[in-house]
Amino acid sequence: MRGFAESLRSQAHEAANRLHTVVSLIELGRVEQARDFATTQLGVAQRLTDRVIAAVEEPVLAALLLGKAAQAGERGIELLVTGDVPEGAVDTGDLVTIVGNLVDNAIDAAAAGPPPQRVEITATVREGHGRELVLRVADSGHGLPAEDMANAFTRGWSTKTDDRLIGRGLGLALVGATGVEALRLLAREPVDLVLLDMGLPDRHGLEVCRAIRAAGHSVDIMAVTSARELPVVRAAVSQGIVGYLLKPFAFAALRDKLERYAAYRAQLSGAGPVAGQHEVDRMLATLRSADPSHLPKGMSRESFDAVVAIVRAADGGVSAAEAAAALGASRITTRRYLEHLAGIGLVDRVPRYGGAGRPEVEYRWK
Questions:
Q1: Percent of the chain predicted with pLDDT > 90
Q2: Looking at the structure, do residues 239 and 310 belong to the same domain, yes or no?
Q3: Partner of 133 for a Cys bridge, out of 90, 241, 310, 324, CB 3.0 to 4.6 A?
Q4: CATH code of the domain containing 327
């Protein structure tokens, strides 16, 4: 939120500077120059907006990047945006924080580098076992020294020397971009937990699971994936995964999974026998979230499951009014559950034509 507010502040600051210039020129009797200046500045702003919107139609991401462009411009840095992100293609929940931090770091790095100073952002949507945003941020800065490359993967490490930032970096907790890279790293270094996507570029995540077990690695595996197919879930469980987190998810959901895993590992750190079955059950229960669905506030698991059952059983789709009648709840309450299902990618919203007035929205299970 702080980064987004800073972007808006930069835009307001730039606009105020231009407005003051136009007003001052008019007060000096230079009306023609004021008009030319205003026209030129509007053209520059419009071209920037057109370039960003052409690459990123998602309004929240586009607004953030426009603000960052103004922020970069204040420091004499050119910010270029390319790609293809249609509106509604990605969940914007944590996007502002992630993209804002990446671009802020790139702007800082470019400002410390030689001219011409620039930041290049490429954003695309990748289809596979779900829809994923692929974001590439590059800058004209000096880059990391070779001796510091390994430190980039260390929690708490940062290139910034401000004492207030010490220990705040999360580190790049990446195993690898492909299954082959992950297997190579596991052969070189001890690893406690693998966060595994099922939709890797070179092979399916289940193949990586089998290869890990075949190589004799006892590392724990947690699936973090868009794969919702029951055969995939069953196969993952048979490979001994310790958790299965579906995309898209809020950061709180991932944090909960990792904190529970850390508590689980802490309970297994001893070497002695367990006291009994109750202790084994307690340790295994540590891995399970109290609220596995992470439903928004005000939603109940019972009603959520009931709405899911109604939509899945519907022949061709169901409207909010029809679902509400089947559920025995108000249309407003039912629509909230249906919109949540649409937001997490389980149902499609399709207009239903045929009646008088505006078309009704129909919800279809994917």
A1: 9
A2: no
A3: 90
A4: 1.10.10.10
Residue 199's domain spans which residues?
179-285
What's the N-to-C CA distance of the chain in angstroms? 33
Give a yes or no: residue 245 inside a domain: yes
Helix segments in the chain, DSSP class H: 2-27, 31-55, 59-74, 95-111, 179-188, 205-214, 230-238, 251-267, 277-285, 301-313, 320-327, 331-343
Instruction: Output the average pLDDT for the chain.
Output: 77
Quote the CA–CA distance of 311 and 317 in Å, as a whole number: 7
Which DSSP state fits 120? E
More confident residue, 50 or 164: 50
Using the 3D structure, point to which of 253, 285, 317 is the last residue of a domain: 285
Tell me the pTM.
0.42
17: left (phi over 0), alpha (psi -120 to 50) or beta: alpha
Cα–chain center distance at 185: 25
What would the pLDDT profile of 13-30 be if each residue is shown by its tens digit? 566 666 767 677 777 777
Shared domain check, 253 and 310: no
Cα torsion through 101, 106, 107, 112, rounded to 10: 130
How confident is the model at residue 234, as a pLDDT? 92
- Candidate from 190-204, 220-234, 340-354 with smallest mean pLDDT: 340-354
Strand, coil or helix: what is 192? Answer: coil
pLDDT score recorded for residue 326:
92
Rounded Cα distance, 254 and 98, in Å: 15
CA distances from 354 to 107, 314, 357, 358, 359 (A): 52, 19, 9, 9, 7
Residue 359 lies in a domain: yes
Instruction: Quickly state the pLDDT bin for 172 (edges 50, 70, 90).
Output: very low
Q: Does residue 294 form part of some domain?
A: no
Q: Which of 91-95, 109-113, 138-142 comes out lowest in average pLDDT? A: 91-95
Q: What is the 3-state secondary structure (H, E, C) of 213-251?
A: HHCCCCCEEEEEECCCCHHHHHHHHHCCCCEEEECCCCH
**209/77 same-domain check:** no
CB-based contacts of 219, cutoff 8 Å, min separation 6: 186, 191, 192, 193, 194, 212
Cα 207 to Cα 112: distance, rounded to the nearest angstrom: 44
- The answer to whether residue 169 scores a pLDDT higher than 70 is no
